[in-house]
Write a structure and sequence with these properties.
alpha/beta, Nucleotidyltransferase, domain 5, 5 strands, RNaseH_sf
Length: 162
């Protein structure tokens, strides 16, 4: 019997990293927000190694940043590039999806904003409802749990497009 394919979804952001580990959108093994402080690439790589050792994923999904609709810090770009190098070193295929691609997928389900996408995801996964971010005004910091919903949006985008 062939072992199930495991997907590791990572979404690094200002607070740490949202992650989802699953066989498919209905078979979730683990998910959450990993608080990573101080923000150093080495700490993110240590966390990646932990996931690789514990779950042995067969593919990794990351945030793409090449398109024009991606506001992303140079530090986060460095972390993503380090994740890609680690995945290549372990012969694990990497899929990347930009904010534009995520918005296009979720526009079919009720919204393009991060808040609308999080609201949609919480309706599909009721266990996430208590962690659903509050509506953000321009001057507000992004909700801590938004990274978790960003990771879910990456996972769902992958399964919708592939």
């Amino acid at each position: 019997m062939q072992a199930p394919e495991l997907t590791l979804v990572l979404y690094p952001n200002y607070f740490g990293m949202g992650y989802v580990i699953c066989e498919n959108p209905k078979e979730l093994l683990n998910y959450g927000m990993a608080k990573i402080r101080p923000f150093t690439t080495d700490r993110y790589i240590k966390r990646l190694h932990k996931y690789l050792k514990q779950y042995r994923p067969t593919l990794i999904i990351l945030r793409g940043y090449e398109n024009d609709d991606n506001r992303i810090s140079k530090r986060t770009v460095g972390v993503i590039n380090s994740f890609i190098q680690e995945a290549e070193a372990h012969d694990i295929p990497v899929y990347k999806y930009s904010r534009t691609q995520i918005k296009e997928v979720f526009s079919d389900f009720g919204g393009k904003s991060k808040f609308a996408i999080a609201k949609t995801i919480a309706s599909w996964y009721p266990e996430l409802e208590p962690r659903k971010p509050q509506f953000k005004r321009n001057s507000d910091l992004e909700d801590y749990n938004m990274g978790l919903f960003d990771a879910f949006s990456l996972m769902l985008t992958h399964h919708y497009l592939e």
